[in-house]
Design goal:
Elements: E1 25-29, E2 36-38, H1 45-62, E3 67-68, E4 75-81, H2 86-93, E5 109-118, E6 121-129, H3 132-145, E7 165-168, E8 172-174, E9 181-185, H4 193-201, H5 210-222, E10 227-229, H6 243-251, E11 255-256, H7 268-271, H8 274-277, H9 282-299, E12 307-308, H10 326-346, E13 356-358, H11 363-369, E14 379-383, E15 405-410, H12 428-440, E16 446-450, H13 458-469, H14 478-492, H15 494-513, H16 543-564, H17 570-602, H18 608-632, E17 668-672, E18 694-695, E19 702-708, E20 714-720, E21 725-727, E22 731-734, E23 740-747, E24 757-758, E25 775-784, E26 787-796, E27 799-800, E28 809-810, E29 815-819, E30 825-827, E31 833-838, E32 845-850, H19 860-866, E33 869-876, E34 880-888, E35 901-906, E36 912-915, H20 923-931, E37 934-942, E38 946-954, E39 960-967
Parallel strand pairs: 2-3, 2-4, 4-6, 9-10, 9-16, 10-11, 12-13, 13-14, 14-15, 15-16, 18-26, 24-27, 28-33
Antiparallel strand pairs: 1-7, 5-6, 5-8, 17-19, 19-23, 20-22, 20-25, 21-23, 25-26, 29-39, 30-33, 31-32, 32-39, 33-38, 34-37, 34-39, 35-36, 35-38
Helix pairs in contact: 1-3, 5-6, 9-10, 12-13, 14-15, 15-16, 16-17, 17-18
């Protein structure tokens, strides 16, 4: 069957203002008449719910309320499940409707137009479902087609008004879905969803109850999801403590499951009573534990559920057992699973095993690896490491299991090394890469996304569920960008779609380098105070200031966009785009300006006060916007939904500020890139009086800061002593409003004298000590009041014939930096090749060896003969031992027997294997997930200056190579690698 479902089904052409009698056109709303919706009372409750949602959606678009009727009219929308709709059964029997494409399929539906199917019906728009959910999905597919977003309630996306709605509908089959069970897990709901429901949306219960769940289930139906793990923190009553909850779930055809810490649908945090039940231990108190399991199995016997088997301790902790040896724990866990399955069998009329899941997470994974025997029909649900990197997937043997496999994935997390509970900061391309990989290794039974409070995870939720519905629309990384563009088009119109897409891609790229909630450099469990940033102030253009500028550009862009968004889209734009961007930018600015404040104070800059004020301004902006979200947006609809300081961690506080010692004299301060100390005119042979050397091959520029050392007004002037020195500004005035200014110094390479004409580089010189024949010196004079300062300028401008037409990478100040996607050439391996992943990595792209299923190559002879290889030409002026630093995206090994390895060599040297794998929650793993980067190093000997070729070989497929830094001894401390040194 041809599955032609598209990720974004809302096409502008589906809503037209004219009507012709084309056989595939159907008038939903027309001036002369409107369609009637026909469902069957014998069909499932969810079909009735979906039909009423469609009626309301059509009303939002057109102002016309369609009738839900059993009577025929000239134009009818007929929706039903095979075997449950009298009229559709009749048409199938008469041969007017073909049910074979959807019959006996899982969640498969067709939509088509029938012309004159009976004497009193001129046109019928038919939705035929293989089961109850399929029929509901089909009705809500029509909602999309009339222009209503799945987020119409949860993000207040209001549709554009239309006088008429005429759908163009070719016969299409939708399904089967790529993943059988697809859904979300509400978690860490304490600060948003639970408070909003208890105090605002469902105060009659004072909790997340059936009214709240009904709106959640409606959203899931609109997103073609079918599975749900309910909220389970202590602030929320257990899902089954409210009888209406399970009835509501069944009405919406939701399959209820539970997390790894909630066996048999039991919320241990809320439901285990120590006074009446004793200790929550299976080795000493199994009967009371089984009683709880029995009661839940009885309550849920008539409902669709997935039962998590196994057992952990309370509060997401290890299971308490009497003996400490692993084999005893394995045997006890096997007994737990056996008893749980017996309980389920005894509560099933069919005596068949209901869907069950086993989550090998934390210590349970250890037990599984130690030989725990798991029945074949149980689904293995693998997990990520809580930060978006899947720990393990099914090996070839496990891929054949009858129960299959699935994935539990996070875009929100509470725990070490640090929470990220406020904003969505998981890169969509990373999620795509990991979930596509999971699908490739047959994890296709269950996909669950831990999305915290739902808001503000809207886009990633939809992407996750769209992938689960039809993975064929997401074959490569560029498809994620297309999906984002289609999403932006649907929500805000074609006019702004590209701007919004570009804006959010930059948002994702910045968050990938450091999530906003990690900007205090603190950790949790235990909670630590804020620490100094790893971003450098003084090298490579000042990482702190560059990040400030990048986020300021986001703020400027989103504010311009907001002013141009249509009135009916303003509330949605605020929730889906504006608030997340402003929140992330402001949290970054708060800390980045605080770091600038501290650094400025250490140099005696009066501007320390300015940066303190900017930090507080960003802090107040978060409070202001969150207050608007909670109190004013939609007249208080979302009161209490947004908390911008979950757990009140140090990252959310106002940083402490520092101020310089009082200076009695109004004077000019000068600070140069590359030096922590300011330029001191009274110091003989100062180390801070010369800019880093300018390289003709990289054509770099450097900054000079001029600043006040005391409040007042001061004029300054800068005079280059050579016409080839270019300054972004040559004079100015500093005062309280502008206490400092940054100048950029660059070189006019057409004017600077060239060095001697040489065939190749000099032998083994320190780049900072280039011989006079390759170096040109001059200076910039700074004048203010009665003081003069001189800043040296040195230019490396040789004339090497070897580099005349050279297009590779070149040494600059003792290092070479390469973006992995910019290879000089590549060579395919026996069964694999390198491909570029767009949108993932510090440079906006990374390189990966595919397909993932090929065998690793570990022996050096096999690496040379069978592995694909990337080649990078580079040119150096020094030689000797160098460090080859490879930065990778910190993924994990796919399963035992595979790793996260590549190999490197220079020229004809043998490959040296580099391994990025980490073990458990080690210090390296913590560093990696906080930075979204793993860096490993290999040593190589370069015996001469000049041209060389770096080779990066595949060892394990699937390793994501991001950047490369060849350090010849010149790389200074920085958070990220310096910019690429490419001619």
């Amino acid at each position: 069957m041809n599955r032609i479902f598209k990720a974004c089904c809302v096409l502008l052409s589906t809503i037209t203002l004219g009507y012709s009698q084309s056989k595939n056109e159907f008038p939903v709303v027309k001036l002369e008449h409107n369609a009637t919706i026909i469902i069957d009372k014998k069909d499932a409750k969810v079909v009735d719910i979906a039909a009423k949602i469609l009626i309301n959606d059509v009303y939002q678009v057109s102002g016309v309320k369609l009738q839900l009727s059993a009577r025929n009219s000239p134009y009818v929308i007929v929706a039903g499940t095979i075997g449950s709709h009298k009229l559709l059964n009749k048409w199938i029997k008469e041969g007017k409707l073909d049910s074979s494409p959807v019959e006996n399929k899982w969640e498969t539906f067709s939509i088509q137009v029938l012309n004159n199917p009976s004497k009193d019906i001129q046109k019928a728009l038919v939705v035929l479902g293989s089961d109850r959910r399929a029929t509901a999905y089909g009705l809500l597919e029509l909602s999309r087609k009339v222009g209503v977003s799945p987020w119409e309630w949860w993000a207040d996306v209001k549709p554009d008004k239309q006088a008429e709605i005429i759908l163009k509908q070719e016969p299409i089959i939708y399904g089967e879905p790529s993943v059988k069970y697809r859904g979300i897990f509400l978690n860490d709901e304490d600060w948003g969803l639970q408070r909003w429901a208890a105090l605002n949306y469902e105060p009659e219960i004072g909790d997340i109850g059936p009214k709240t769940y009904a709106k959640i289930f409606e959203l899931l139906l609109r997103l073609r999801a079918n599975t749900f793990w309910p909220a389970m923190h202590k602030c929320t009553q257990a899902f089954y403590s409210y009888p209406k909850n399970k009835e509501t779930a069944d009405n919406y055809a939701m399959v209820v499951g539970s997390s790894h810490a909630e066996p048999m649908l039991c919320n241990i945090n809320a439901e285990w009573n120590h006074k009446t039940m004793g200790e929550y231990r299976y080795d000493t108190n199994s009967e009371n534990v089984k009683n709880l399991f029995r009661e839940r199995a009885r309550q849920t016997a008539d409902y669709e559920s997935i039962y998590t088997v196994g057992m952990r301790g309370e509060h997401d902790s290890p299971m308490i057992v009497g003996e400490d040896d692993t084999q005893s724990q394995v045997k006890l866990l096997e007994q737990v699973i056996f008893d749980q399955r017996e309980i389920l069998r005894s509560n099933s009329e069919q005596k068949t095993v209901k869907p069950q899941a086993f989550v090998p997470y934390k210590e349970v994974l250890k037990y599984y690896k130690k030989g725990l025997k798991l029945p074949d029909d149980i689904t293995l649900v693998w997990t990520d490491d809580n930060y978006g990197y899947i720990r393990q997937l099914s090996n070839p043997s496990e891929q054949k299991r009858g129960g299959g496999a699935g994935v539990y994935y996070h875009t929100s997390y509470w725990g070490r090394p640090h929470d990220y509970l406020w904003l969505n900061s998981t890169n969509p391309v990373l999620m795509w890469e990991e979930m596509f990989k999971a699908y490739d290794f047959n994890s296709r039974e269950i996909w669950i996304l831990n999305c915290g409070d739902i808001k503000p995870h809207e886009y990633n939720i939809e992407l996750f569920l769209d992938m689960a519905w039809d993975i064929t629309n997401f074959k490569n990384s560029q498809d994620v960008k297309k999906h984002r563009f289609n999403w932006a088009t649907r929500e805000f119109g074609l006019k702004h779609a590209q701007q919004i897409t570009n804006l959010m891609i930059e948002y994702d790229n910045l968050a990938f380098k450091r999530r906003p909630e990690f900007m205090a450099w603190s950790q949790v469990e235990p909670v630590t105070k804020a620490k100094p940033t790893e971003l450098t102030h003084i090298f490579y253009g000042d990482e702190v200031t560059k990040r400030i500028a990048a986020y300021q550009q986001l703020i400027d862009s989103v504010e311009v966009l907001k002013n141009d968004i249509a009135v009916n889209k303003q509330d949605a734009f605020y929730q889906l785009i504006y608030y997340p961007v402003i929140g992330a930018a402001s949290l970054n600015h708060k800390w980045l300006y605080a770091y600038r404040n501290e650094f400025s104070a250490s140099q005696g800059r009066f501007s320390a006060k300015y940066y303190a004020e900017k930090s507080k301004e960003a802090y107040n902006r978060i409070i202001l916007e969150t207050k608007y979200f909670n109190q004013d947006l939609k007249q208080g609809k979302w009161k209490n939904i947004m908390n911008s300081a979950p757990r009140n961690l140090p990252v959310f506080s106002l940083p402490s500020m520092k101020f310089p010692n009082r200076n009695d004299k109004l004077s000019l301060g000068i600070a140069l890139e590359g030096y922590e100390m300011e330029l001191n005119n009274n110091t003989i042979n100062s180390f801070a009086d010369v800019l880093p050397i300018f390289n003709a091959y990289t054509k770099n520029s450097y900054f000079i800061d001029v600043f006040l050392k005391k409040e007042g007004t001061l004029k300054w002037e800068a005079k280059p002593k050579a016409d080839w020195i270019s300054l972004s500004k040559t004079s100015g005035v500093l005062n309280s409003d502008k206490p400092e200014e940054r100048l950029l110094v660059s070189i006019d390479w057409e004017k600077v004298p060239k060095g001697e004409d040489k065939k190749e580089a000099p032998l083994g010189h320190d780049f900072q000590l280039i011989p006079p024949s390759f170096k040109v010196n001059s200076a910039i004079e700074f004048i203010t009041n009665d003081e003069n300062y001189s800043v040296g300028v040195s230019v490396f401008n040789p004339k090497f014939s070897e580099l005349k037409d050279y297009k590779g990478f070149v040494e600059d100040k003792g290092y070479v930096v390469i973006n992995a996607e910019n290879y000089t050439k590549k060579q395919n391996g026996l069964d694999a090749t390198y491909e570029i992943i767009e949108g993932l990595g510090y440079t906006g792209a990374s390189v990966v060896a595919l397909p993932r299923r090929v065998s690793p190559q570990v022996l050096k002879t096999d690496i040379l003969s069978k592995s694909p290889v990337l080649m990078y030409d580079f040119y150096i002026f020094n030689f000797g031992e160098v460090s080859i630093n490879i930065q990778a995206v910190p993924t994990h090994a796919q399963f035992e027997g595979r790793g996260v390895r590549c190999a490197v060599s220079v020229d004809d040297a043998p490959p040296e294997i580099i391994d990025f794998e980490t073990i458990g929650r080690s210090a390296d793993w913590k560093d990696n997930v906080l930075k979204n980067a793993a860096v490993q190093t290999a040593k190589q000997i370069l015996d001469r200056p000049g041209k060389h070729t770096l080779k990066v070989w595949m060892v394990d497929p699937g390793v994501l190579i991001d950047q490369i830094l060849i350090d010849l001894g010149g790389w200074k401390s920085s958070y990220a690698f310096p910019e690429e040194t490419k001619i």
